[in-house]
Amino acid sequence: MQRTSMLYKERIQTLVAKLSCGLLEKEEAISLSLLCMIAGKSIFFYGPPGTAKSIVARRIFCAFKSNKFFDYLMNRFSTPEEIFGPLSLSELRRDKLIRKTDGFLPMADFAFLDEIWKSSPAILNALLTIINEKKFRNGDSMENVPLKGLIAASNELPEKGQSLEALYDRFIMRLIVPRLKEKESFRTLLQSQSAQDEIQIDEDLKFSNEELDSIKQRAKEVQIDKNVIDVLENLKNLIEAHNDKILKQQNVEDEIIDVSERRYVNIMEMLRVCALLSDRKSVVLGDLILLKHCLWSVESQRQIIDDMLRQAIESNSAKFICDRKEYEEFINEMHILSQKEERDNIVEINGQKYAEYELEVLVNENKQKVKLLCDLRAGENERRPCAICNNEKLSLLDNIYFEFGSNDCKIYSYSHGYVHGYQHKLLAIEKYPLIIKKDKPKLTYMQKNLYEKTRQELLKIVKNELQNCQKEQENFIENNYNSFITNISEYSILMDSLKETEQEIQQNILELEKLENKIKGL
């Protein structure tokens, strides 16, 4: 077996880059297909016609030294002879139905079957045995099939009621291959030449059959981190709860998410290979990102799986803890020191300040909305008449009074009763417009210096926390690096908590920076 000094992750990166050359927005399809082929698993491409599914498949097989590649476009008239080989005439004369399989699927190391669901039941049933058992019945004997990996494609999902569930379940990864999404990609497409099916790959980058066997054997030694097991248990519980809800509601529009035990086993085998090819000795949280391509059966389940996966990972995702006590105490103290008397509902008339409240009250025996003015010179629990202002002229109301409490302002209406005399009715309890304080004296030069020194020290601490939080994210990505994830944004599902903490710290920095001028003005 030829060996290379290159790390697996560097080798995979280089391979994906070369295989993706000239193909727009197909890095993910290339990368995940490569993983499945190395791990010996089947992958299903689902997408509209003209999205380069067949080119991706043919490019993938350039990454392997074997030239035993079978490629066929299926249709409803396809015959077993076209897929599994013609019957041997010499054997037929001896009353034996033996196929000549050289050059056909039973002798291929890798295969691509386009429009797979258009094929006949006889072909699909034989295909199920090949994928599942790596066996092919040829006449009276069961022959071993060397198939390492199978890529199938279609612009439709298997039709219900056609007994295709078992075969569909054998495709461990189901990948949607959409049309171009980015505007720039479309511009590039218009100016580009047709992409080639095959591409030249350096021999030292290619995988031989012997190396593939070695990788699978070594992958068995890869451990599974405890938090990965915890997430998978959480995910399984969420799927079961989702299915129970559908069954109870008897909702025929929604389909249950059916994940067989065999599927879980195959997924874990694939993730072990993924970990090994990421130069790790264990399956980590970063590998679980790939599950979003493994658990859905119909398109409507994709977002549900994404949400479940995020929820299952949440309690096990990376976290960064900050001590906020000293910061919060300083911010609160600065808030109190810089608190102004004026609020939104404070108005000034003829040099005097009033609290203004808009209420519906009885004025001159007519109910109307008025802006009541409450004199801020009133003491606590002192009842005074409200006023209204017309053309900057104040008028006191004889039937509506206010009373300031420590934290509120009560407004009463008064009426005269012949039996009980004057009666009052509570109309509203409004928020007190301000905290009554004597004018605060200006801070001394030394006090300002002390506060500024504290601010600078806290700013230094918080900026250091930001660096540590960002470093934690970098370390987390490095420790969870997955050779087959081509977009770093995919890791966001694992780092929600770290990202939230980073945003909070950045906000803290802004608050502390704003306080510099406030302290100068105190």
UniProtKB/TrEMBL annotation:
Indicate the segments forming the ATPase RavA-like AAA lid domain, all copies.
Answer: 228-309
Q: Which residues form a coiled coil?
A: 205-252, 455-518
Keywords of the record, alphabetical order, are: Coiled coil
| The keyword Metal-binding is assigned to this record | no
Q: Which InterPro entries match?
A: MoxR (IPR045427), P-loop_NTPase (IPR027417), RavA-like_AAA_lid (IPR041538), RavA_ATPases (IPR050513)
Where's the MoxR domain?
Answer: 11-216
Q: Which PANTHER family match?
A: ATPASE RAVA
Protein name (Swiss-Prot/TrEMBL): ATPase
- Species name: Helicobacter muridarum
